Amino acid sequence: MVASGIFRLTSAQHQIQANRERARMVEAFCATWKLTDSQNFDEYMKALGVGFATRQVGNVTKPTVIISQEGDKVVIRTQSTFKNTEISFHLGEEFDETTADDRNCKSVVSLDGDKLVHVQKWDGKETNFVREIKDGKMVMTLTVGDVVAVRHYEKA
């Protein structure tokens, strides 16, 4: 009985350590980010099925992305002159998301090493965003099918 009590304590300590590590990794993303550069975003939006008028606005809009932790949830707010969105979620848990282009998705955001991976699924389709910090900047790689776009952000 003592051995199992020790195991539980060790397991609980391991869980606490894992939670702290996840919080530390997410903390690296917690900031206000301003879009500075975008490559292949129009092709990415086309592959998503975004209409011409919305793509034109999307191509010239420079959103601000605010990533924060509120309790045990991560919050990502995207603000622009076009539209504001906000998602709040627990890492690794599916949630409902309505995107800036009005897609209703089932989404999951998780940590993969030092990357924040966001997967959206809707109507039998899937896209993913991989956010990572490189040289103090956030790089977001967006993929749908074989189309890849990259967006660069700097701290505001």
Automatic annotation (TrEMBL):
Q: Which GO terms describe its biological process?
A: fatty acid transport
Q: Where in the cell is it found?
A: Cytoplasm
Q: Which PANTHER family does this one have? A: FATTY ACID BINDING PROTEIN
Q: The Cytosolic fatty-acid binding proteins domain covers which part of the protein?
A: 31-48
Key word Transport present: yes
Organism in which the protein naturally occurs: Equus caballus (Horse)
Q: Which Gene3D superfamilies match?
A: 2.40.128.20
Hey, which family's this protein in? Belongs to the calycin superfamily. Fatty-acid binding protein (FABP) family.
* InterPro entries documented for this protein: Calycin, Fatty_acid-bd, ILBP, Lipocln_cytosolic_FA-bd_dom
Lineage, uppermost ranks:
Eukaryota, Metazoa, Chordata, Craniata, Vertebrata
The protein's GO terms of the molecular function aspect are: fatty acid binding
- Which controlled-vocabulary keywords does the entry list? Cytoplasm, Transport
Q: Which SUPFAM superfamilies match?
A: Lipocalins
Task: Look up the record and report any one GO term of the cellular component aspect.
Answer: cytosol
Record-given protein name: Fatty acid binding protein 7
Does Transport count among this protein's keywords? yes
